[in-house]
Each structure stands twice: as C-alpha cells, then as structure tokens.
Amino acid sequence: MANNEISAIRDLIKVLNDGVNFYTDAKLELKGSGYETLFQEMIDVRQNALVRLQPLLYAREGDVEDGQTIEGSLRKAYTELLAKIKSSKSKTYIVQLEELEDRTLAFVKKAQQEVVSVDFTIAVNYILISMQECHHRMRSIKRNVA
Predict the structure, then answer these.
(1) Which of 53, 66, 102, 111 has a CB 3.0–4.6 Å from the CB of 12, allowing a cystine?
(2) Helix %, strand %, coil % of the chain (to 5)
(3) Which stretches in the chain have pLDDT values below 50?
(4) What confidence score (pLDDT) does residue 1 get?
(5) Is the pTM of this model over 0.70?
(6) Per-residue model confidence (pLDDT) at position 72
(7) Angle, to 10 degrees, between the axis of helix 70-85 and the axis of helix 89-114?
(8) How far apart are CA 44 and CA 90, in angstroms?
(9) Residue 23's pLDDT is what?
C-alpha cells in the first residue's frame, strides 16, 4: 500500500512539474497578451504544492522527484507546433492549458485515493482545493476565448 502511495505522490509531483514548465513557456510565448499574471499565479500554485509535497517525499524516501511526465512533454511540444500553424496562438495555448488542468486534477484525485499516511493526506487534500480553483479559472478563460 505504501508503495502505491509513493508512486502516486511521485506521479503527482511530475504532473505539477509539467504544469510549472508549461505555464512558464506559455507566459513567455504569449508575452503582451494580458495572460502573464494569470500564468504566474498558476505557476505559483503549483510551486506551493511542490513545496508541500517534496519535503514529505524526502522524509519518507530520502530523495525528491524532479522529473516530468512523457505526456506532459509531448503536449507542450504539440502546443508549440500548433501555435506556429494556427491563427490564434493565445487560443491554442489556453485550450491546451485547460486540458493540463483536467489532467492535473485527475492526478490529484488519484493520489487522494492512494495516500494512506496523515501527512500526505493533508497535503493532497489542500492541493486538491487549489487545483480545483486553477481548473475553474482556466475553464472560464477557455470559454471566453472560444
């Protein structure tokens, strides 16, 4: 059971890292679009989640997780390619970032089901609340640009 817990936490951390990197790239690519503050807030929420999880993982395993998911890396590359050929770079990024939010929520909920220790449970429950807010914000932005 504990092995599933650690695996779920590592996967969640990887998805959070995907988000930090994807929002950072979007912030640079869409400079001057008016989304920079929003993207920075999304980065900050993910970094705060990482600050909660990494010390717990380190205490348990003796190391931290600094990787990313393959899917996250592929989605970022796909978005960059689409942005080059589509007429609306902003819309392309917003749609893909909202999908990232869906994926992040799924990983948080999976971790929530797998964690058994009190420290990870508290951290994941807190992270779920902040990730739901991020998801709602991006879904709203997506509706406005669609």
Answers:
(1) 111
(2) 85, 0, 15
(3) 1
(4) 47
(5) yes
(6) 64
(7) 170
(8) 21
(9) 95
CA dihedral (137, 140, 144, 146) positive or negative: positive
- Angle between helix axes 36-61 and 118-145 (nearest 10 degrees) is 160
37, 88 Cβ separation under 8 angstroms: no
Q: Which tokens is 17 given?
A: 């890292």
Please tell me the predicted confidence (pLDDT) of residue 3: 81
The three-point CA angle 50-101-129 to 5° equals: 60
23 token code pair: 């929002």
> In this structure, what token pair is assigned to residue 106?
């799924």
Between CA 73 and CA 25, with CA 100 as vertex, the angle to 5 degrees is 55
Tokens of 130: 């902040």
